Recover the amino acids of this structure.
């Protein structure tokens, strides 16, 4: 089921959690089947040879299957994406944010000493920096209006990383989920995955949602309840219930990406 | 070496604990004396500190340590979960209380320069927010693992440290959960990322230091490394063979460090 709302709901977190009485029991049986599908599919492409370096699949690998221009992949777009993720992390623990741009930048600098994006940010002139700050403010307002307060009893975690080595390390799947709520230790499915993007939602966003759900299933062996992606550019949100069909489609996405990377070698 | 590999699931983890050996190996004074002699033979210019990370990197030094949200998360996260286990607090509230205590320690002059409390006290507001987010992630992850356990568990107040007599060497083992199984103990350690080829030697080093740090030299019956990001766990048994291998790896790391130091000096 895909829910497309023309305006942001009053509280995205409430929408993600839904009605507890209607949640299915946790599914701990599907993960091994999905892993087998991936292993078999990769073997058909790569065979038994050892790859060095391995093929690495990330969310960004699934975003662009064809050569098109995506503004979110420009350096300013990527910087804005990193900064909005930092703000989401601060919001997830209930921090008060006075100055979105400077607070996000301070948090980012505390995490990494230097990288290519920070160097690019440092090279921006005053006007470009001010434009980026204003842009980020707008995205932040959209995000906070939609997100609402995240209760701590729902165990929110931000920037949850996962890594899966398949086919003896020939293929490495990497992922970072912007926000995760719920726990895999519950009797009923309760994990909801939230991804924020600063670009409008497109086909790539759908693949990312599926990929997050697949990675979480492989990592914890527990199928999540829902996966969602939110655009802080448009306020649009897509929410999908996670089922085996959705995860199997993500396996197909990953195998298609493996085939592309293998052909390009 | 008794290295076992499992998926990190409730059943997998409980099975690893339930099937651990029943008899614990004990290190005696002659073992300690032998280790001390070996470390004394590897002369170091200053005080030497060795841990599993050093063993895994074959003695190669990394970047100079600095506090950051990522390096602070384990200390704050473990302390917060210990707090949440004894008080009716959510994990986020426990992390906030722990951060508050740390900053209070710095404000009242009970922290030394370079300590976590000192760094937190001077960190800007958004950095404290990020430390909170990282510590909440760590504590929640550890809480999930602890919730799965059938046997009683505790969170140790500190890592295991052992000063090798007359060898100017301190050994350190990370430990995040200690599970009691009758009279024996199983130790769990959580790591980020995924296990590499040297994860086994790293675990054995931790196992050996944990045994040395025990007052009576009793080794854990099993030492389990958890990699939640990869969803896997590895374990080594506390046998004398594994303890000896762990000690050998630590001495080799000291030798590798000295060789590197000599090369740099040349």
């Amino acid at each position: 089921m895909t829910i497309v709302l023309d305006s942001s709901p009053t509280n995205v977190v409430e929408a993600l959690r839904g009605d507890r009485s209607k949640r299915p029991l946790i599914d701990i049986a599907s993960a091994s089947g999905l892993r087998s599908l991936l292993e078999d599919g990769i073997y058909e492409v790569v065979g038994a040879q050892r790859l060095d370096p391995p093929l690495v699949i990330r969310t960004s690998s699934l975003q662009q299957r064809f050569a098109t221009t995506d503004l979110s992949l420009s350096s300013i777009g990527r910087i804005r994406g990193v900064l909005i993720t930092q703000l989401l992390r601060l919001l997830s623990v209930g921090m008060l944010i006075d100055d979105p741009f400077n607070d996000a930048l301070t948090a980012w600098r505390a995490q990494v000493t230097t990288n290519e994006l920070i160097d690019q940010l440092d090279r921006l002139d005053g006007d470009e920096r001010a434009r980026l700050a204003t842009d980020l403010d707008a995205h932040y307002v959209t995000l906070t209006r939609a997100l609402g307060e995240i209760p701590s009893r729902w165990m929110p975690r931000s920037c949850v990383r996962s890594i899966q080595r398949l086919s003896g390390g020939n293929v490495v799947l990497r992922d970072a989920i912007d926000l995760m709520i719920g726990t895999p230790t519950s009797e009923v499915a309760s994990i909801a995955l939230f991804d924020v993007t600063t670009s409008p939602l497109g086909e790539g966003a759908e693949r990312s949602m599926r990929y997050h759900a697949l990675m979480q299933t492989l990592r914890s062996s527990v199928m999540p309840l829902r996966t969602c992606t939110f655009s802080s550019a448009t306020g649009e949100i897509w929410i999908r219930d996670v089922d085996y069909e959705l995860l199997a489609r993500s396996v197909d996405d990953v195998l298609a990406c493996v085939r592309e990377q293998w052909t390009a070698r | 070496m008794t290295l076992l590999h499992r998926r990190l699931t409730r059943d997998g983890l409980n099975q690893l604990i339930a099937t651990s050996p029943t008899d614990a190996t004990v290190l005696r004074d002659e073992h300690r004396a032998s280790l001390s002699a070996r470390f004394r033979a590897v002369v170091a210019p200053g005080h030497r500190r060795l841990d599993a990370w050093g063993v895994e990197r074959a003695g190669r030094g990394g970047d100079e340590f600095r506090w950051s949200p990522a390096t602070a998360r384990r200390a704050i996260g473990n302390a917060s979960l210990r707090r949440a286990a004894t008080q009716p607090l959510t994990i986020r509230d426990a992390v906030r209380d722990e951060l508050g205590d740390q900053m209070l320690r710095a404000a009242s002059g009970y922290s030394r320069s370079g300590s976590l409390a000192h760094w937190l006290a001077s960190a800007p507001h958004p950095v404290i927010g990020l430390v909170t987010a990282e510590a909440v992630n760590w504590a929640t992850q550890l809480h999930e693992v602890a919730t799965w356990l059938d046997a009683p568990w505790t969170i140790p107040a500190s890592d295991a440290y052992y000063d090798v007599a007359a060898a100017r060497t301190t050994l350190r083992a990370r430990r995040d959960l200690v599970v009691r199984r009758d009279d024996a103990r199983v130790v769990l350690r959580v790591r980020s990322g995924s296990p590499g080829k040297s994860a086994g030697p790293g675990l054995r080093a931790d196992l050996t230091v944990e045994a040395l740090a025990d007052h009576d030299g009793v080794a854990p019956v099993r030492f389990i490394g958890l990699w939640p990001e990869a969803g896997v766990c590895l374990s080594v048994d506390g046998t004398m063979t594994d303890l000896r291998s762990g000690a050998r790896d630590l001495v080799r790391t000291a030798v590798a460090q000295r060789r590197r130091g000599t090369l740099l000096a040349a």
Notes: The interface with chain B takes residues 28, 86, 89-90, 92-95, 97, 103-104, 106-107, 110-111, 152-153, 155-165, 183-185, 218-221 of chain A (CB under 8 Å). Residues 71-147 of chain A form one domain.
